[in-house]
Design goal:
about 475 residues; 5-stranded mixed beta sheet; 5-stranded antiparallel beta sheet; flat
Amino acid sequence: MRTLPLAVLAVFPLLSSCGAGDGADGATRGVSGETQLVPPTATPEATPEGALGDDARTSPPVFDGFVGARFAILEAEGHTRIVDLVTRRVVVVAGHPIVDEQYGGDLTQFSIPPSVPTRTPRATKDGRRLAIVDGDGAYAVDTTTGARVASLMGTAEGAALGDDGSVLVSWGGGAMRFGDVDGTWTANVTLTSDREPVFFWHGRLVVVHTVSGEHVVDRSTWTEWRVPEGELVRVTEDGVAITRADDTIALWRVGEDAPPERFTGVPASVYVHVDAAHVAWGERTAATETDERLTFHVVSRTTRARTTFRGEGTCPIQPESVQSIADGEITTDVTCNPGCASIEYQTHHVVYDAATGALKRREHGELSPALTLTWGATLERLEVQAHRLGATRESAVESPGAPGVFAFTTETELLLGDGVRGRVLRAMKRSEGAAHPVFTKDGRFVAATTEGGAFTAWDARTGEPVFSTDTPE
């Protein structure tokens, strides 16, 4: 049997079956009054690229990653350059971004990581605000203008932005500082940690993971809520904390003194879903290995009445899982391969009545395009062509915005290829040296970065270069 190349194998593991309050006057709330929130009007504007001093030019900038769909972040000797790939405007701000690194990149879903980590600066999802740190504190920076929209002064070892960009948080010396980006107030929450914390934002609650454990911060009061008992499982968007002790889960209203709601007989391995009226989970209780159906349990939060029913078993090779529970309905989903001959995928949704378990309706998504054995053959042909031009298999990255479009790098070029038709589309010249490609989230722009920090970006649709660190200033 023929052995498929790495790029083809990278696709096929999927086919394994085959704040309110005193804010107006800028008051400080929390543990300490030492942290000052500087209003946006007191922060300096960004420096245009042409006005850079010699101290910002002594070493080439290093590419830190893309934020949003259009901004490239580059760092050099205490300065951060923000490149708008649409307008081609460059602004420079003091300080450096906080960058997360993880292996996997665009191929994470295929469980085959590339040889280089994906670097992602901490920013809002739309890329409009970026977290910056320098010797004076932490800042939220507007990526279109470079202006500081909020500042938390004081020792800052790191910084992050809230999910919607309305809150800036910094940490250093065991203290975390939270500041409203509109510049009206700041709050300190002292949490002990000897490493960088990880934040998860859930409505008005923030879950902070540290070495000392998990902490819940209530954004309405900016105080820490301590878990009364058991182990914190997660929090919900409407302010409910879920804890577990053995086979019992408890629902706590954060910020209220009311006793929790307790539910027993909940296996430790299941994911519990909660809405205003029900608690639900699914578990595998099949007597045979060939029966992949789940048993669903739904408990009323008011009467404690329990409904138990079996899933429909929509896909013969994969069980349903609870996607959501809301408005008296449980919705499950499963992504199913109808058969190895087609190697296409279809998402199935099944909706049940939460009170009775009765089937209410089925919903079927469209078959996914291009994932076929034919594509496997054409992708192999593309890989052969790219290899003849000097590309390596390890450099192949698929565009997240245009499935089937791949980027490869050679010693002097970046290649774009069509995996569906099996041909190289275009080749773009770049700096010499080993490099790896990276796409923006929507796939509109593609860049090649070298280990030395050289960075060139192109419009992926036209092949037109839009920015390069090799361009003389």
